[in-house]
């Protein structure tokens, strides 16, 4: 975090020397900082200062000596504001996308390695397998449809292939005597679907086989008491169909469909220079296309940087980190299913500092900045050191600058 420093001497009237905005050398002689994106709110704040300072300086009311107090102004300010103790937070706004996360594929068996499937909200967790490689497709879901535990993902020869919740796929034929995590996934789902007569554990018993027969009867399948890899699709939770890739009356092969989680989230390809601004649990604000602002929380930060193509304007290549944010109150998102959004992240915070409206600053002819202080005895200009700019205010410090002072602001 930067320590506020004196700005460089002003050449006549100028803007506050905020290195984070202007990219000029800091008052402490430090090297120039990299320019922030144009959308950063600091730019707009500095522009206000330019206008305010120029107007006041043009009246000739600013002192040219470098002393602690300038000569009294000929008249009081049009209006005043208090020097307040506040917490200032500088922010960075980046581009994001509202949607349901990355879509993953459900593949028919015999089409290669099963695709990695996304969990609830899009986090990778588990694999999806589908079909038994024979027959033709007789039922497919619709795009946007939500599939829950026990619902058919699709049907082959009118035999339903249901969705089961879990992280271990059905990768082998299960029968009495089998043991493992896939057995536990099957038994947990059988119990959730109302079947009894067995203990949910890692062992496939005769009780498990009897429950499987009852489940197969419900599905309209042959009651074998055994489960093959293509008899169900396993995913970590309910899924939303993104795209149907197969067609009715065709043999299932390749990608049958793609799907996502059912919760809308915000995805960001974050420039790696802002990596320190995000961590799991970091709060952010999301602006929707209609101007509505909603609160979000960082749920996942990718570990590997992804190469980013060169920018059309000639900017240098960079790298990004995949970041996902969740919105707790989904109703605030309205009817948006997919949309570009702006994500505002907190970049730096200064707590319990003295702050004034940014347009209370005036440029001193001798260099630096001052505030117009209104006292019982009149009006005087007191030099100030500038700190952080945020939310239309600026951090100030200096001799005689205390909480509660009245300072002039343009009318």
UniProtKB/TrEMBL annotation:
<feature type="region of interest" description="Disordered">
    <location>
        <begin position="61"/>
        <end position="144"/>
    </location>
</feature>
<feature type="compositionally biased region" description="Pro residues">
    <location>
        <begin position="1"/>
        <end position="10"/>
    </location>
</feature>
<keyword id="KW-1133">Transmembrane helix</keyword>
<feature type="transmembrane region" description="Helical">
    <location>
        <begin position="42"/>
        <end position="62"/>
    </location>
</feature>
<feature type="domain" description="Peptidoglycan binding-like">
    <location>
        <begin position="180"/>
        <end position="227"/>
    </location>
</feature>
<dbReference type="InterPro" id="IPR036365">
    <property type="entry name" value="PGBD-like_sf"/>
</dbReference>
<feature type="region of interest" description="Disordered">
    <location>
        <begin position="1"/>
        <end position="36"/>
    </location>
</feature>
<keyword id="KW-0472">Membrane</keyword>
<dbReference type="InterPro" id="IPR036366">
    <property type="entry name" value="PGBDSf"/>
</dbReference>
<protein>
    <recommendedName>
        <fullName>Peptidoglycan binding-like domain-containing protein</fullName>
    </recommendedName>
</protein>
<dbReference type="InterPro" id="IPR002477">
    <property type="entry name" value="Peptidoglycan-bd-like"/>
</dbReference>
<keyword id="KW-0812">Transmembrane</keyword>
<dbReference type="Pfam" id="PF01471">
    <property type="entry name" value="PG_binding_1"/>
</dbReference>
């Amino acid at each position: 975090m930067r320590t506020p420093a004196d700005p460089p001497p002003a050449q006549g009237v100028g803007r506050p020397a905020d290195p984070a905005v202007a990219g000029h050398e800091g008052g402490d002689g430090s090297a120039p900082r990299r320019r922030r994106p144009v959308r950063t709110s600091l730019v707009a704040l500095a522009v206000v200062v330019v206008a305010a300072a120029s107007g006041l300086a043009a009246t000739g009311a600013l002192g040219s000596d470098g002393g602690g107090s300038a000569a009294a102004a000929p008249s009081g300010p049009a209006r005043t504001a208090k020097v307040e103790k506040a917490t200032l937070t500088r922010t960075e706004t980046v581009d994001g996308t509202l949607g349901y996360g990355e879509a993953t594929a459900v593949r028919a068996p015999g089409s290669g390695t099963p695709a990695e499937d996304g969990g609830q909200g899009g986090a990778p967790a588990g694999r999806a397998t589908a079909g038994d490689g024979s027959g033709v497709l007789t039922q497919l879901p619709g795009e946007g449809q939500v599939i829950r535990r026990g619902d058919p993902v699709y049907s082959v020869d009118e035999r339903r292939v249901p969705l089961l919740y879990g992280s271990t796929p059905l990768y082998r034929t299960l029968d009495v005597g089998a043991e493992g995590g896939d057995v536990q996934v099957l038994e947990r789902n059988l119990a959730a679907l109302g079947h009894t007569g067995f203990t949910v554990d890692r062992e496939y018993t005769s009780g498990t086989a009897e429950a499987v027969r009852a489940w197969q009867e419900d599905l309209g399948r042959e009651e074998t008491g055994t489960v093959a890899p293509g008899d169900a699709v396993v995913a970590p939770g309910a899924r939303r169909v993104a795209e149907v890739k197969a067609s009715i009356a065709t043999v299932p092969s390749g990608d049958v469909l793609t799907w996502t989680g059912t919760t809308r989230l915000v995805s960001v390809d974050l420039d790696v220079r802002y990596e320190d601004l995000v961590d799991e649990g970091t709060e952010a604000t999301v602006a929707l296309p209609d101007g509505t602002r909603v609160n979000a929380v960082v749920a996942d930060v990718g570990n590997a940087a992804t190469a980013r193509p060169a920018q059309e304007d000639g900017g240098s290549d960079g790298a990004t980190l995949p970041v996902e944010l969740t919105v707790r109150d989904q109703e605030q998102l309205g009817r948006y299913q997919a949309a570009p959004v702006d994500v505002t992240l907190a970049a730096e915070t200064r707590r319990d500092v003295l702050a004034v409206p940014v347009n209370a600053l005036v440029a001193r002819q001798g260099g630096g900045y001052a505030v117009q202080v209104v006292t019982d005895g009149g009006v005087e200009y007191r030099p100030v050191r500038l700190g952080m700019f945020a939310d239309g205010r600026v951090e100030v410090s200096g001799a005689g600058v205390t909480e509660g002072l009245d300072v002039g602001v343009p009318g």
